[in-house]
Amino acid sequence: MTIQDTEVASLFRAHRLPGPAYRRLKDLIVEQIGTGRWTEGQQLPAETQLASSLGLSRMTVNRALRELTAEGLVVRTAGVGSFVAKPKASSALFEVHSIADEVVARGHRHRADVLTLAAESADPRAAVDLDVPEGARVFHSVLVHYEDDRAIQLEDRLVVPAQAPDYLAQDFTHRTPHAYLMDIAPLMRGEHVVEAVVPGAEERRLLQLDEHEAGLLIRRRTWSHDRVVSAARLLHPGTRYRLEGVFDA
Fold first, then answer.
1. What are the sequence ranges of the domains in the chain?
2. pLDDT score at 92
3. What's the pTM?
């Protein structure tokens, strides 16, 4: 089934998010796929059709489709066309989950202590991670997550205020930052870096770690509509936490 260029043009005219034309087109396509309105195997209009219907240059349309292809949302076949890609299989290692959901799924009780919830100025590292100017206002939260009465994660998160303006007004003892952000800025892309670390003295105290116990650190960044939403440092007790994943060869 082919998606009609007239449908895309109508949606594009109604899609008034700010930004360059290629990003607006890309965001529109991501939104239609994400909501399930456009499904696997549906063919997108040809670049020339889209350019004509939308009043854009072919170069602009091509950039949007190239980036969507690179992100795995669209499959392009030379001489045939562009199609909505098949959703990729994923697992806990490759997905972004709420720590509270993981705990409840194991049949245990989740709770969280909020240590920090404030606005700060972005230091050089934060500016790079969040793609904002150095010194820009950012939101900062630090939480300790518990499974029953054992600490299992120290969450240190920075958030771009433009993506979550009411972040500081939330009660994160009842709802995790992840769950809140997923509602207001749906995840389109994520990045994980996993490493073993030696926790500092305060981190050991908060996570109830033994003197020589290692930590498992996940550095996670998330995007919504091509814009960085948050950068989180998630530290776990190395002996009480593991990552699991399933993949096909």
1. 5-84, 99-237
2. 46
3. 0.62
Pick the closest to residue 151 from 111, 178, 179 (CA basis). 111
Q: How far apart are CA 155 and CA 225, in angstroms?
A: 24
Tell me how far apart the alpha carbons of residues 245 and 237 are, in angstroms, rounded to a whole number. Answer: 19
Architecture of the domain whose range is 99-237: 3-Layer(aba) Sandwich (3.40)
5-84 architecture in CATH? Answer: Orthogonal Bundle (1.10)
Instruction: Report the mean per-residue pLDDT for the chain.
Output: 85
- CB distance 143 to 114 below 8 Å: yes
pLDDT digits (tens, 9 = 90+) for 123-135: 999 999 999 999 9
For 190, the token pair is: 């994520």
User: DSSP string of 196-248?
Assistant: EE---HHHHHHHT--TT--EEEEEEEEEETTEEEEEEEEEEETTT--------
CA-CA distance, 22 to 14, in Å (whole number)?
15
pLDDT greater than 80 at residue 120: yes
Confidence (pLDDT) at 154:
97
Strand partners, 235: 154, 217
pLDDT at 26: 85
How far is it, in rounded angstroms, from Cα 166 to Cα 203? Answer: 28
Query: What residue spans of the chain are helical by DSSP H?
Result: 5-14, 21-34, 47-54, 58-70, 99-105, 124-130, 177-184, 201-207
User: For 11-40, what is each residue's pLDDT tens digit?
Assistant: 777 766 667 888 888 888 888 887 778 888
Residue 70's φ and ψ, nearest 5 degrees, are: -60, -30
